[in-house]
Design goal:
alpha/beta, Oxidized Rhodanese, domain 1, 2 domains, 5-stranded parallel beta sheet, two-stranded antiparallel ribbon, 5 helices, 52% helix, rod-shaped
Length: 141
């Protein structure tokens, strides 16, 4: 009688292990693969939200507008980079620093924000409505 009980226990534990190990492995691999599958995300923000982020953090602001528009007026401390320049020289930017993208159009901002996230930039925001939504001071030439 006692050997049947031991046998049942052994079968039970084997069954639990057979079911548990693959489940644990799926969870572990799922967690490891999840960030790369999603590719991270950028966040669309308003001008007020962007201003708060700029006032309270170290940021890099990338203005995608054409140079002649940037020269007329731009957000202080922003840098003017075209889409092509960003995709060629993104490695010269700090991936750990908060990045705010100022789009020329909604689509170019989303493309560059997604590109930066895909390159490993941690905190990427896009000022969806563009510079017109910026409530703070602007530098004018």
């Amino acid at each position: 009688m006692e050997s049947k009980g031991k046998e049942r226990n052994r079968i039970f534990f084997k069954t639990v292990l057979i079911l548990l190990i693959p489940s644990v492995l799926l969870i572990i691999f799922g967690i490891l693969l999840l960030p790369s599958d999603l590719g991270g995300q950028y966040i669309e923000i308003t001008g007020e939200e962007a201003e708060i982020i700029v006032e309270t953090n170290e940021v890099q602001i990338i203005d995608l507008r054409p140079q002649h528009q940037y020269e007329k007026t731009h957000i202080p401390q922003s840098i003017n980079l075209s889409e092509e320049v960003v995709t060629e020289r993104y490695h010269s930017l700090d991936k750990r620093e908060i990045t705010i993208v100022i789009p020329h159009t909604g689509n170019d901002g989303e493309e560059i924000a997604r590109f930066l996230v895909d390159q490993g930039f941690a905190d990427v925001y896009i000022l969806k409505a563009g510079i017109e939504d910026w409530p703070g001071d602007l530098e004018k030439n």
